[in-house]
Write a structure and sequence with these properties.
There is one protein chain. This protein is an alpha/beta fold and 243 residues long. The protein has a single domain, classed as Vaccinia Virus protein VP39 (Rossmann fold). It is 42% helix and 23% strand. A seven-stranded mixed β-sheet has the order 3-2-1-4-5-7-6, with helices on both faces. Helix 3 packs parallel to helix 9. The radius of gyration is 17 Å and the shape is globular. The mean pLDDT is 90.
Length: 243
């Protein structure tokens, strides 16, 4: 799916369907959503925030700033550049974040984003799966990161087998999801180092149980992603470094 189509979908979703209340509907509307938020937040704090320092921060696809605020709490003096192709999403981020720190907002396709400065931290959640050009995406990050800069990405774990079992067609929006093995290959090809994968959120297949999901995260969340945890992993995160 082309990026302009994604732009239209999210502008419509935020501006018309959800009337600007995207964050609540995505992360807090029910117990399952809240469990997904809690697990993802733990992953960000445990595997990345507690281990890095930064001054210049770049984020792609910040949405309403759900995860951005965690980095702001870590360093309120840092300068934050947020890039989103959806104007409606960017409006939500501006409303929430502008009064809180040093924020710059850019409405553009990330692959067309231009900056004169280098960043020591790159973050993106649930955005890379919408970019068909995964290698170009990672090459762009490499170009924008400073030497010894860190990157942290959260993305969906493709489970196309589940669609086949349920006899369902894979939605167009989900066809560009990338597996951990493929993403690692792309990172290595772009000469990133210190590459580590972890679960971000867990789901028990075919059962909508927040309790079971949390139990799975308690078992696997502190460990690196492996064959067994991948079976239950709804989304995963990747930490990497530019040398």
């Amino acid at each position: 799916m082309e990026n302009e189509e994604i732009k239209k979908i999210y502008n419509n979703l935020v501006g018309e369907k959800l009337r600007g209340d995207y964050e609540y509907n995505r992360w807090f509307k029910d117990e399952l959503s809240r469990a997904g938020y809690d697990m993802t937040r733990q992953a960000v704090e445990r595997h990345f925030l507690s281990q890095v320092e930064f001054k210049n921060y770049l984020e792609v696809g910040p949405g309403p700033g759900t995860w951005t605020v965690l980095f702001l709490e870590k360093n309120q003096t840092a300068e934050f550049d947020l890039v989103d192709i959806s104007l409606e999403m960017l409006k939500l981020a501006k409303e929430k974040l502008s009064p809180l720190g040093r924020f710059n907002f850019f409405e553009t396709d990330f692959l067309k984003f231009v900056s004169e400065k280098k960043y020591d931290l790159f973050f993106s959640s649930r955005a890379i799966e919408y970019f068909p050009e995964k290698n170009e995406f990672m090459a762009k990050i490499k170009d924008l990161l400073d030497v010894d800069g860190w990157g942290f990405i959260i993305t969906k774990n493709p489970k196309y087998w589940s669609y086949k079992i349920m006899g369902r067609k894979i939605p167009e929006m989900h066809k560009s999801q990338v597996s951990p093995n493929e993403l690692k290959r792309i990172l290595v090809n772009n000469n990133f180092t210190n590459i580590n994968f972890y679960p971000a959120a867990m789901t028990f297949p075919f059962l909508k149980s927040a309790w079971l999901n949390k139990i799975l995260y308690k078992i696997f969340g502190g460990c690196k992603l492996n064959f067994l945890s991948r079976l239950f992993c709804e989304s995963y995160c990747i930490k990497f470094k530019k040398q």
